[in-house]
Amino acid sequence: MKRILLLGLILILINSTYSFSFAAIPEQLPKEGDEIELRYVTTRSVTPQIAISAGVADYSVTVIPKSSTSIGYIEATIKLVRTSTGVTTKTTRGNMYQSSGKFKLSDSKTLTSKGEYHIEYTLKVYKSGALVETLTGKSASATY
Description:
By secondary structure, this protein is mostly beta strands.
């Protein structure tokens, strides 16, 4: 009797795992005619970096274009943010132009408070004077 009960429970458990593998919500499945959006239109990659040494935060954002002609210039805003409070310590704005196959904007800030910091960026990508795409993101944190 115990074996039959145990066997029954095992069969129920095995059958219950099959339902989870087919549990996609229909609204989340792609529909016919849906288009897949690429992550970037004109850029191959965006790399935010931050390093803190001797109380100075050095940070930058580097953009690699898909081709040498896919981007005219980039309007960049980079914020140095103290992670624990969300307070912006410094904001850097500037236009990025292609040099050696990439676009890069860098800055630094002497920190007055210890803690974790990261950068947040907004990049407005232009080609032939027209806005093509806007990219946003943030870096990993660095500790002072």
